[in-house]
Amino acid sequence: MAKPGDDDEQAIDRLTLYMLKETYCAAAGALMRMNPQAAEALFQAFERQIADALQRMHAHRSEGPDSTAIALAVGDRIAEILDQAHRRQFEPPVASGAVASGPEDRSLEAVRETGISSEAVAVLADLQRRFPSS
């Protein structure tokens, strides 16, 4: 098997990031739906861990002379993903007596609007049916 060229490496990196982002967003949405308090605590721990790692990258210059710029760029990119994945925690909760219109409730509609694949939305819908919120 031939070694991938630079264009192939860029495609591999781009698609890997895309798939990880999509999967993380789907998992974050499911966790928020099942247990918002646990999701918030977990998200805060993730963000703290990422911030600590980026700070170490900057302090130790582990990526060479441009470590600070690299850490900031990585932080910006990760922040976009986390903001997208975690944004629903800031939406007002659905009233307890509210009935979903049609086969999808509001949280699934919000997830669909993020642009994740229909397969990921189907997995979330299945999780919601299996583990309905109280």
What's the quick description here?
Helix content is 71%, strand content 0%. The chain has helices at 6-34, 36-60, 67-86, 106-113, 118-130. The longest helix has 29 residues, at 6-34.
Instruction: Tell me roughly what share of residues is in helical segments.
Output: over 70%
Unreliable segments (pLDDT under 50, ≥5 consecutive)? 89-103
Outline, from the CA principal axes? flat
Query: Which oligomeric form is depicted?
Result: single chain
Mean pLDDT over the full residue set: 79
What is the gyration radius calculated from CA atoms?
Answer: 18 Å
**Distance N to C terminus:** 53 Å
Secondary structure category: mainly alpha
**Secondary structure tally, helices:** 5
Tell me the series of helices and strands, N- to C-terminal: HHHHH
Number of DSSP strand runs: 0
Report strand %: under 5%
| Major β-sheet profile | none
Describe this structure in words.
The chain has 134 residues and is an all-alpha fold. The chain contains five helices and no strands. α1 (6-34) packs across α3 and α1 runs parallel beside α5 (118-130). The termini are far apart.
Any descriptors?
134 residues, mainly alpha
Topology:
Layout: H1 6-34, H2 36-60, H3 67-86, H4 106-113, H5 118-130
